[in-house]
Amino acid sequence: NGTARVMIWDAFPTADGVAANRVLGATGLGVGSSSAVNASTLGAPSGLLVLDDELVVADSTRSRVLVYTRP
């Protein structure tokens, strides 16, 4: 469906339509996800875990787990 992504806000949004600060799984805001399988794309993010400075994302369509380190 082109929306397989994880969006991150630095502060909790207090209104509708607040743009995310970072997007994982797509090249940017408003951009659909790619069908390519690589470290920058997600098929179906289905679980998240925050562990210290890392975000762990389960990608169920592609049977993998990706680990993102806080920038």
How does the SSE layout of this entry go?
Elements: E1 6-8, E2 22-24, E3 45-51, E4 54-59, E5 64-69
Antiparallel strand pairs: 1-2, 3-4, 4-5
| Average pLDDT level | 85
Largest sheet report: 3 strands, antiparallel
Q: Mind telling me the C-alpha Rg?
A: 12 Å
Low-confidence stretches: none
Total number of helices: 0
> Which structural class should the secondary elements be placed in?
mainly beta
Shape: globular
The share of residues in extended strands comes to: 35-45%
Q: Alpha-carbon distance between the termini? A: 28 Å
How many E strands? Answer: 5
Can you put this structure into words, describing what you see?
The structure is a single chain. By secondary structure, the chain is mostly beta strands. It contains no helices and 5 strands. The strands form 2 sheets. A 3-stranded antiparallel β-sheet has the order 3-4-5, with no helix packed on it. Strands 1-2 form a two-stranded antiparallel ribbon. It is globular, with a radius of gyration of 12 Å. The N and C termini lie far apart (28 Å). 11% of the residues are buried.
Features:
three-stranded antiparallel beta sheet, globular, 71 residues
Quick overview:
The protein is mainly β and 71 residues long.
